[in-house]
């Protein structure tokens, strides 16, 4: 199933390209030749192909594999991948990761000194709204009116309704990232006509309400987890995103939604569709599509979805110094990413914890120079090897990997419930038991279980469990530690030892070009 989904994704790129071009060029008439909305959506069997393009928008970067005809312009295509951009914005300005490259924009993320012209925050913004645009078109063309007009059978309509709700989920996911990273943003839905116009601005609080209403409405219209093909969004994916929003509601709209977070975590847990993987490192290997823990992945394949972003970036950028690429199932040695000492220090029991996966040979823990790979422990958390030791499908002859990025997994549900309980929204004893389930997996037994937990314990456990999974910036903001001078890491604020920074950096800037083109938008304060 994993390979089929990925192969369809590549085919669908070509289908959707013709669709988008026809919509842009001929808004008021049907094109006389080639692909257009009437041709593509007139066949009910095509809907799954276009849906696959929506999923592929989270993984691939363009129309010709890893390089050629990129989806978005203004940045190297390999840099423009959704998950690669998310990693940079969520991990580099935190206590977990540093990147030694000097490409414009990366040092500023390391140092938390970015401006509205940062190339990576701009690319993330445009990547998000490219994805929203694709989803809007699919949702528009799969409405009840359109399906009736096209004479589809009841069986075809029922199938397409599920696809439509998956597209709504994917749109909600991208709008969630827009809300989290940028705050108040332009807002477009399937109700807006295709073509150039100036979208209205939606506030962060109103966007929260919109995403919440969409997810609640579609929750029961998605497939149940047991019936959902791998790589697609189930009811649990919508429930997870709701729980994550509710956990951060104090940041997004100033409310405490801990009880709602706990409620949706329990929905996922009580469905018994997912269990913890027995082996933590295997969650990040090339056959992690077999894991019982992953709720929603972004799929990759070393042969069929080649990209310099996603997990290919995470594997190869983490290899340097004395490391041998073949040991990690690749031929890449990009020597960029390392862990900051703060993350290393979260593991007081060192190698007793299976989540401690640092490579130390030839490396020193402390970082005084960003561009020296030997400074900072390497962290090959993602490995293009199977759980049985085999190399991924590329046979280590290229840098491209098979590892799926586990965007949502059960372990985070456990941690969200435990935190929500401590914030007044659930059973603290049950939350403690969930945390200890993770620790038992990490240590192999109950010897290191905790007798009680605090919110700070939860934050540290999240670092141990979820490091380099694109959650850390959001976590530190929720705990009010992202900008403060009371918690420091190397190069925070541009100082080697770290210093506090302005609170305006809790949001990234809207691109200046968008502000110039759309008078409805307002730049975030401080930029």
Structure description:
By secondary structure, the chain is mainly alpha-helical. Helix 10 packs parallel to helix 15 and helix 12 packs antiparallel against helix 15. It is built from 19 helices and six strands. It starts with a helix and ends in a 10-residue tail after the last helix. Helix content is 43%, strand content 4%. The N terminus is likely disordered. The protein has a domain of 127 residues: Alpha Horseshoe (Serine Threonine Protein Phosphatase 5, Tetratricopeptide repeat). The chain has a two-stranded antiparallel ribbon. Strands 2-3 form a two-stranded antiparallel sheet. Strands 4-6 form a two-stranded antiparallel ribbon.
Topology (SSEs and partners):
Layout: H1 2-25, H2 37-42, H3 47-56, H4 82-91, E1 97-99, H5 106-111, H6 119-141, H7 144-149, H8 154-182, E2 185-187, E3 200-202, H9 204-219, H10 235-247, H11 249-252, H12 258-270, E4 294-298, H13 310-316, E5 337-339, H14 341-344, E6 405-409, H15 410-422, H16 428-443, H17 455-466, H18 472-478, H19 512-517
Antiparallel strand pairs: 1-5, 2-3, 4-6
